[in-house]
Amino acid sequence: MTLIDGKLVSSAIKEEIKKEVAGILDSGKRAPHLVAIIVGEDPASMTYVSNKEKACHAVGITSSVYKMPVETTQDELLKVVDFMNRDADIDGIIVQLPLPASIDKNVIINAIDPKKDVDGFHPESVGKMVAGMDTFLPATPYGIVKLLEYYKIETEGKHCVIVGRSNIVGTPAAILLSRKAYPGNCTVTLCHSKTPNIKELCLSADIIIAAIGKPGFITADMVRKGVVVIDVGTNRVESTETKSGYALLGDVDFENVSKVAGYITPVPGGVGPMTITGLIQNTLKAYKQANI
Ligand code: GUN
Q1: Could you tell me the distance, in angstroms and rounded to a whole number, from the CA of residue 225 to the centre of ligand 1?
Q2: Does residue 195 register a pLDDT over 80?
């Protein structure tokens, strides 16, 4: 079994980005700038945003966080997005999800300038991705593809079973893995809550992407020997064994599945660090498109 080390791969990519940003600064230009808007105080969202901030600073990208109270209305949030769209010193905008129930996330995502849509969630970005055009790819599926590439994992003609059809991970991953490209050229099965035979489908998979948000959902009896397992789960569960009082668990029963798998990502340290790297890559791309 080979452990897919997301920290290692993301460090290698971040080193490259850092050099590129240093070159930009040396030429007298300003640094790329990412803004994260966060509404409310969801602890998981706050952790994500603070990790994104740290990662930006580590490579020389300016990162700002715009915090808004949980009572923020949709109109107030739209005004902030509009203001940031028009600020030429901001290259990338992300609105951290989930948003409070009173705000329609689709309205907000649609309001972000596609040129600054470094999450790749805007319908224009999604449409371009589906059409195989150059665009911002959503950070998590982008990270998954980069991991497969780094470990030179064969994908052509393989059966890739994706469990979970979210707009953030499962659906875009299905599009990327079925593209006529490497990594890609897979036959993709996208499973969701109404799929009756997930176990049977997983047992016929060469590659499993678990993005369902249920700790330990993929068990050893659901996978065949040598399978490639990509675990996107970041489930916060209470724990007495950690200082923070919670532990991060994947969607895969790592202890047992790792005994059968050919390749597997750990949680933490697998897809997570790659997601942030994808976002940083997109921010640099947005900056270059607008400024160079
Ligand atoms: N919430 C969970 N993942 C993401 C992400 O990739 N982007 C945003 N904006 N919110 C998220």
Answers
A1: 33
A2: yes
> Would you say residue 292 has pLDDT above 80?
no
Q: Is residue 283 part of a domain?
A: no
Residue type, 4: I
Instruction: Assess whether 153 and 225 both reside in one domain.
Output: yes
Confidence of residue 44 (pLDDT cuts 50, 70, 90): confident
| Ligand 1 contact via 139 beta carbon (within 6 Å) | yes
| Whether residues 152 and 226 fall in one domain | yes
Active site residue 119: yes
| Interval between CA 157 and ligand 1 midpoint (Å) | 30
Q: Which residues contact 238 (CB under 8 A, 6 or more apart)?
A: 245, 246, 247
Q: What is the pTM of this model?
A: 0.95
State the CATH number of the domain containing residue 35.
Answer: 3.40.50.10860
Count structural domains, the chain.
2
Strand ranges of the sheet holding 62-68, from the earlier edge strand across to the other edge: 62-68, 33-39, 92-95
Structural domain boundaries, residue 83: 28-113
Atom of ligand 1 nearest to the CA of 279: 6
Q: Which residues pair with 207 in a beta bridge?
A: 160, 228
In a domain, residue 1? The reply is no
168 Cβ below 6 A of ligand 1: yes
